């Protein structure tokens, strides 16, 4: 099934979500993203909201897929560099291959801690993310970085005396300026030693005008998208870079089928390697 093919009933397993506090009265970005990727774990209200955005901005599908491919490439890159610990914040609904599966193709001893605040993601985590040793899941909010670092899953799963890869893929555009995304990143990266990696992708309207349809849809969902012009995402990345000297590809446009055309994929992504004492 591809986006655009309408389904009349939810296809999410009721056994997975029973007892969970799941709001099906509003679309949820994680379930909409699952729909963009061709997944099945979404409700009718999510599909209707996603289709509104697709009709206005068809390249959202390329952007979602380009973002997913960036995540997989970034995981391979950090593991190939020697990192054996990953914190994946804003995990989203599991989509195979998942972070731990990609990492363990290169290094089977890689440990992964997944972080998300969505009950549906938590429901899937037991079956798809934490069913093998060395993987953990923490139900926590990216807006509360101190809680993430203090969570038992992070304390038990991550040794901060060794390099860590911190993934914030398609997360920061859901965090408003008043919630201080740069401060969140600074808190999360403070315990990371040299040789660690920070991986970020961020939605942008650098290549389009503001998408009022998307803004309206996400404003009425369980999370809204912060307007992501370059004056928002570039300074955030620059402040992190200034505080944590690093080396790496930096910020660039995520490739996609539409990138060669007039519109282009609307994702910026970046990879930084380093730590409090500078690059390794």
TrEMBL record:
Biased composition range(s): Polar residues: 7-22
Superkingdom of the organism of origin: Bacteria
Record-linked InterPro entries: SAM-dependent_MTases_sf, SAM_dep_MeTrfase_SAV2177_type
Record region (Disordered): 1-25, 242-280
Biased composition (Low complexity): 250-262
Biased composition (Basic residues): 263-272
Protein name: SAM-dependent methyltransferase
Species, as recorded: Streptomyces himastatinicus ATCC 53653
């Amino acid at each position: 099934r591809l986006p655009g093919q309408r389904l009349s009933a939810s296809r999410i397993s009721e056994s997975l979500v029973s007892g969970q506090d799941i709001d099906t009265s509003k679309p949820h970005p994680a379930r909409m993203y699952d729909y963009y990727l061709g997944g099945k774990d979404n409700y009718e209200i999510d599909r209707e909201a996603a289709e509104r955005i697709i009709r206005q901005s068809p390249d959202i599908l390329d952007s979602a897929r380009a973002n997913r491919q960036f995540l997989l490439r970034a995981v391979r890159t950090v593991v190939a560099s020697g990192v054996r610990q990953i914190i994946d914040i804003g995990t989203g609904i599991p989509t195979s291959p998942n972070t731990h599966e990609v990492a363990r193709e290169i290094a089977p001893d890689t440990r992964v801690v997944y972080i998300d605040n969505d009950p549906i993601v938590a429901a899937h985590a037991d079956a798809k993310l934490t069913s093998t040793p060395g993987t953990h899941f923490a139900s926590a909010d990216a807006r509360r970085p101190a809680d993430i670092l203090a969570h038992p899953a992070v304390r038990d799963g991550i040794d901060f005396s060794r390099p860590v890869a911190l993934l914030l893929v398609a997360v920061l555009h859901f965090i408003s300026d008043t919630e201080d995304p740069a401060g969140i990143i600074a808190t999360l990266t403070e315990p990371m030693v040299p040789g660690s990696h920070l991986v970020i992708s961020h939605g942008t309207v650098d290549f389009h005008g503001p998408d009022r349809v998307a803004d309206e849809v996400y404003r009425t969902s369980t999370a809204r998208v912060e307007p992501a012009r370059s004056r928002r995402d570039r300074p955030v990345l620059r402040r992190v870079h200034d505080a944590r000297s690093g080396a790496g590809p930096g910020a660039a446009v995520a490739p996609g089928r539409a990138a060669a055309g007039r519109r282009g994929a609307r994702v910026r992504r970046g990879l930084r390697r380093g730590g409090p004492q500078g690059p390794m």
